[in-house]
Every structure is written in structure tokens, then in C-alpha cells.
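If I may wish for something, please sit down with the protein I am sending here and say whether C-alpha cells and residues agree:
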Amino acid sequence: MTVSARNSSGHIGHKVGRVVVPRDRIADRVAELGRQITADYLGRDMTILAVMNGAAVFLADLIRRLSLPMKLETTTARSYRGRSLTPGGLTVADLQPEAFAARHVLVVDDILDTGQTLRAMVDQLAGFAPASTAVCVLLRKHRPALHRPVEAQYVGFDVAEEFVVGYGLDYDDLHRNLPDLCVLDVGAEGRP
């Protein structure tokens, strides 16, 4: 599957290449995660903190698979800017302490790459005295040489060190609507 994207000036920009994880495998795995999280959090006061915009599609499907009461909070964090393929400086929106104090918090994000975004979230949450904090990600990039400052307790899929789009993940705010997880084609210059 190759999809060409038009940029704001109407010119064809980057291409989306092969499917890494098809939509049916995503649906099956999200259902499995929902059962596992439900079993682990049954009887606990739970708050889900979703990192938007990348986790929006994953979050919507995941919470419909959770058979337990929960509160939902959202925040924004961004380390990829515009057309960058590598993470840069991190910005995190402020969180409200009363939403997390004495509650079991599950941070839901789209991808665990360097771990800097999730480390910032977990560190900020620690100051609010939650009962516990865990991390759930749709994707975890396979990066054996990297020691991440945080790990995820719930992982949808492990993927190679490629730039993945679709199912909420984007490149330059495009491709979030693709139903499958796909690799962004990178040309000889290292750019889409």
C-alpha cells in the first residue's frame, strides 16, 4: 500500500509504505490489553492519563475494552516537531494534581521511543502522590543500545526502529487517520 500525501500547497509530499501492523491485529491486541488492564485494576480507583494527539485513536479503542470505572484526563506532550524524524526538545502541558492524588494512574501513549516523554509524565505525576503509576503504549520501538529512563508495563506491539504512522501516529500532523500502522517511506536523502 502506498499513499501519497498532499501538503498545504497541494503538492505531493511524502509516501506511506508497507503495513507494519494491520488493523485486524491492532483490534485483537487492543482487546487483549483491555482484558489484562481490567483484571489488573479491578476494584481500584483508576485514572487514565492520555497523551494526545497521538494516543487518541488507541485511547478510544482501549477504553471501550475496559470493564471498570475510571476517570479520564488528557494532556499534550510533543517531542517531534513538524517534519522532523528524530525527537527534539520536549514540551508537556500542565496537569492538575487533584485528578491523580491517591488514585491508580495509567498513562496511555502512542509510542515508547526514547522514553523522554513518558519519563516527564511519570516524574510530574509522582509529585501528585498517586497510589500507583503504570504506562501503556501502543508501540515500543526496538532500540537495544538505548537505556530508556522508563519502561511500559503494557505494550501493544514492538516495532523496528522505523518511522511509523497511522492509527493516530503522525508525520507533520498527517496520516493519523490511516487504519493500519505503516512505515513512512524515507528517500535516499533520509527525508520522506
Notes: The first strand starts at residue 3 and ends at 6. Residues 23-79+89-160 form a domain with the Rossmann fold fold (CATH 3.40.50.2020).
